[in-house]
Amino acid sequence: EKVGYTSAAEAAAEVMSLETELAATHLTATQRRDPELRYNPFSLEGLGQATPGFNWSVFFDRIGKSDPGEKLIVDTPGALELSCRLLGSPDERLRPYLVWKVVDSLAPHLPRAFVEDNFDLYSRTLSGT
C-alpha cells in the first residue's frame, strides 16, 4: 500500500502467483546436484530460438561482450524461456512483481516504514525471531 496499491493483499497474491510459476521452472535441490541437468549449451542462434522476442546480440553488445563465444551454458533453460516470454507479454502480474523486487532490494535505503516492514518480513515472519 505504501507504493500505490489499494490492496497489498491483491498485489502480494499476484507476486506470489508469478513467483510460484517461475519457481516451477527451476530444478529441485536434488536435480541441481546433477551436472548434466545443469549443463545446457546453446549457440547464440539457438538461444534466440529458445527465447523469441529477446535480442541476445543487443544484450551481449550492451554488456560489452559483443562476441559471447560459440557456446553459452544455460543453467535453467525453462526459467530463462519463461522470463523472456513474460518480459514481452502484457501479464498483469509483472508490475507488482517488479515493484516488489525494486522495493525489496532498496528497502534499507527507503524511509523508516519500509525498513521496519522489511525487517518484520525477513527477521520475524520468515526467520521466526
From TrEMBL:
Q: Where is the Peptidase M13 N-terminal domain?
A: 4-129
Q: GO annotations under biological process?
A: proteolysis
What is the annotated signal peptide range for this record?
Answer: none
Q: Which InterPro entries match?
A: Peptidase_M13, Peptidase_M13_dom_2, Peptidase_M13_N
Q: Which domain of life is it from?
A: Eukaryota
User: A single Gene Ontology molecular function, please?
Assistant: metalloendopeptidase activity
Gene3D superfamilies reported in the protein's UniProt record:
Neutral endopeptidase , domain2
Protein name stated in the entry: Peptidase M13 N-terminal domain-containing protein
Q: Which organism is it from?
A: Octactis speculum
Upper lineage: Eukaryota, Sar, Stramenopiles, Ochrophyta, Dictyochophyceae
